[in-house]
Design goal:
three-stranded antiparallel β-sheet, about 35% helix, 2 helices, about 80 residues, alpha+beta
């Protein structure tokens, strides 16, 4: 009986030291910072039309310009 009590105290001490990491210690997976720049070809040359965080937004702007008859390009820029 005494051995069980000592063993229980030892196990409780080990478990009580919290081997599980807290939420503050766990870092979320990081994704590379990137942005998308839309360039349009005008009479004076290539001009930056806009910068977007999402590719879908950049594509929407580029598609609108393309339908208006402009030549457009989307550039991905990594690591702000």
């Amino acid at each position: 009986m005494l051995r069980k009590l000592i063993l229980s105290i030892a196990i409780a001490t080990l478990i009580g030291s919290n081997p599980v990491a807290t939420a503050a210690e766990i870092a979320p997976p990081t994704q590379p910072q990137r942005e998308f720049k839309v360039f349009v070809l005008r009479e004076s040359g290539w001009q930056l039309y806009g910068t977007y965080a999402l590719h879908a937004d950049a594509r929407q702007a580029a598609t609108r310009l393309w339908r208006e008859g402009y030549r457009v390009e989307i550039w991905e820029v990594r690591g702000k």
